[in-house]
């Protein structure tokens, strides 16, 4: 029969096991063939005798080029497109396992792979994955292809190497070469029908497309796709979509910020999506969706701050409770925005606490350097507004040194109390301060510069005239100097008295600071911060679901065994030798 491998019946010899008629033999180069020839000959140049019990070519598998190193062969055949597609599809198993076991850890593991796939994503690769994953009648797949601009590609394409269903319908008998009646094999090949794709895979591919659109600066397409994915997630009620939904809402808000008109314009899309985010927050609270709840609260605070809606941001913070077991990155963002709100509201002590916690919780990876720089800049300004001088070691960090240089000059001007240098620093770096969003807060430092200058003079002189204070601080008149000195004395900035008749300020003797409660209070604050960090770390730990039930079952079985053992001992069925040693009664 054609297509069958010939076999020997003991009379007719068979050569090469039917290899002669095969056309798909992959031949190697001349050097490879020479190496193979040497490997298949003995020292005398003769081929070794065939194994006993088998004829040559009978039952032997012929593999060409077996001596070629596998690493070199694989390196020559690696296709970056196929490799990226395989890496993307490898996450589908994690998502399916997360949906089957109801365990969010597998979804988080798939989300972590986005950072490694990000630089390799292209529209062709994403479209290739979609066409091989979804069936031909999938509406979500068509929406994803439309976002990539590949809506004309057919769906349901068979991946390379997939198994095929072979249908062999019966037909009329036809004579063979030897006159023996047979059956004409009419082979019809059809692809294996694709199974339904779970929503987790659909949303995951959508997130990859959002990442690609954001990197390629296609804001309008990304905004439209994010809106479609958000509506789809809102219609589904699946807890395994929580981590994916948080990422979708993040890109939804991010694309809206970059569409014209930009915030703080009241016509900005940021204002339009606020009701959508509030509805998503309400739904997340009802469903106890911690990931989406934390992400949406942070996005709402960001939107309110971008449009200078401080009152609405304060109401949101007062009427909502940020989840305690949220991800560390979301907690750091929430503390940063909360610190910015409190700084604008002149609550510098609370702002300093929130910003300090945000900088401590900031990730140490190089990709999160931008957040550390932004939070540290705002923290330095708040410390200056509180009357403190930041430590010089902060400006010596390699990741922050260049970004904090304008703030270093600002701290130097405030520390010395030189009003002229302070105004020159603001004028020279006004664009940087506006970009960082700290310009309005820095303008408040003028009074602090004056107070610092007065404090320095009160420590240097036991008595100084108001005229000298006016000259040193570049003030307009002695009345202004008198007003500023009186306010500094009332606020407790300096320990001095003001003699208005003679026109001078007299400083008091400064006592030992270690005799006061200030060092103890500072030490207590550091201990409280360390304990709070420990408690939050314990709360953030993740454990397998229903693990306590397994431990409870094991404990019950152990108690049952102990009861049976005690009963057997009382009945005399067990002795010390059976227990493996001495046993002192129950």
UniProtKB/TrEMBL annotation:
This is 26S proteasome non-ATPase regulatory subunit. It comes from the Eukaryota. Belongs to the proteasome subunit S3 family. Residues 1-67, 156-191, 556-586 are annotated as: Disordered. InterPro entries: CSN3, PCI_dom, PSMD3_C, TPR_PSMD3_N, WH_DNA-bd_sf. Residues 571-586 have a biased composition (Acidic residues). Transmembrane segments: none annotated. GO terms for cellular component: proteasome complex. SMART domains: PAM, PINT. The gene is RPN3. Pfam families: PCI, Rpn3_C, TPR_PSMD3_N. Residues 332-512 form the PCI domain. Residues 21-33, 556-570 have a biased composition (Basic and acidic residues). Residues 171-191 have a biased composition (Polar residues). Keywords: Proteasome. It comes from Sporothrix epigloea. SUPFAM superfamilies: Winged helix' DNA-binding domain (SSF46785).
């Amino acid at each position: 029969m054609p297509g069958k491998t010939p076999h020997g019946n003991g009379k007719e010899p068979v050569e090469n096991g039917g290899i002669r008629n095969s056309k798909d033999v992959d031949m190697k180069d001349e050097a490879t063939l020479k190496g193979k020839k040497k490997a298949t000959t003995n020292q005398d140049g003769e081929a070794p005798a065939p194994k006993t019990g088998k004829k040559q070519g009978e039952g032997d598998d012929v593999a060409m080029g077996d001596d070629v190193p596998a690493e070199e062969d694989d390196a020559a055949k690696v296709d970056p497109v196929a490799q990226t597609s395989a890496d993307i599809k490898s996450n589908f198993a994690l998502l399916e396992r997360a949906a089957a076991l109801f365990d969010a850890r597998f979804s988080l593991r798939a989300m972590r792979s986005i950072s490694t796939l990000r630089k390799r994503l292209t529209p062709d690769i994403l479209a290739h994955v979609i066409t091989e994953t979804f069936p031909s009648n999938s509406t979500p797949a068509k929406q994803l292809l439309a976002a990539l601009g590949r809506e004309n590609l057919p769906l349901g394409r068979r991946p390379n190497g997939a198994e095929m269903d072979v249908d062999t319908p019966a037909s009329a008998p036809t004579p063979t070469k030897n006159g023996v009646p047979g059956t004409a094999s009419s082979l019809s090949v059809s692809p294996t029908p694709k199974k339904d794709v779970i929503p987790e895979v659909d949303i995951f591919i959508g997130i990859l497309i959002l990442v690609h659109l954001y990197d390629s600066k296609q804001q309008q397409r990304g905004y439209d796709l994010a809106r479609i994915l958000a509506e789809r997630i809102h219609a589904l009620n699946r807890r395994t979509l929580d981590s994916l939904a948080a990422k979708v809402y993040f890109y939804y808000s991010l694309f809206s910020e970059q569409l014209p008109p930009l915030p703080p314009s009241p016509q900005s899309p940021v204002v339009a999506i606020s009701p959508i985010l509030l509805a998503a927050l309400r739904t997340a609270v009802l469903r106890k969706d911690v990931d989406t709840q934390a992400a949406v609260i942070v996005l709402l605070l960001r939107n309110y701050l971008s449009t200078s809606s401080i009152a609405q941001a304060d109401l949101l913070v007062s009427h909502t409770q940020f989840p305690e077991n949220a991800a560390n990155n979301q907690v750091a963002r929430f503390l940063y925005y909360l610190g910015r709100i409190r700084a604008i509201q002149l609550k510098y002590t609370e702002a300093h606490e929130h910003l300090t916690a945000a900088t401590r919780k900031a990730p140490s990876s190089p990709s999160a350097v931008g957040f550390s720089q932004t939070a540290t800049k705002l923290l330095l300004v708040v410390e200056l507004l509180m009357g403190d001088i930041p430590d010089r070691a902060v400006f010596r960090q390699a990741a922050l040194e260049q970004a904090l240089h304008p703030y270093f000059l600002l701290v130097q001007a405030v520390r010395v109390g030189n009003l002229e240098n302070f105004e020159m620093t603001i004028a020279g770096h006004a664009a940087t301060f506006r970009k960082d969003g700290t310009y309005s807060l820095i303008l408040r430092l003028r009074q602090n510069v004056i107070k610092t200058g007065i404090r320095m003079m009160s420590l240097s002189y036991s008595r100084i005239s108001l005229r000298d204070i006016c000259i040193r601080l570049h003030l307009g008149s002695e009345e202004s100097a008198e007003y500023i000195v009186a306010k500094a004395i009332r606020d407790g900035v300096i320990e001095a008295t003001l003699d208005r008749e003679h026109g001078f300020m007299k400083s008091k003797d400064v006592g030992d600071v270690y005799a006061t409660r200030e060092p103890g209070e500072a030490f207590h604050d550091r201990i409280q911060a360390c304990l709070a960090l420990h408690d939050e770390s314990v709360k953030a730990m993740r454990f397998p679901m229903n693990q306590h039930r397994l431990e409870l079952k094991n404990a019950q079985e152990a108690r049952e065994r102990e009861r049976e053992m005690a009963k057997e001992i009382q009945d005399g069925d067990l002795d010390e030798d059976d227990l493996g040693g001495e046993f002192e009664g129950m």
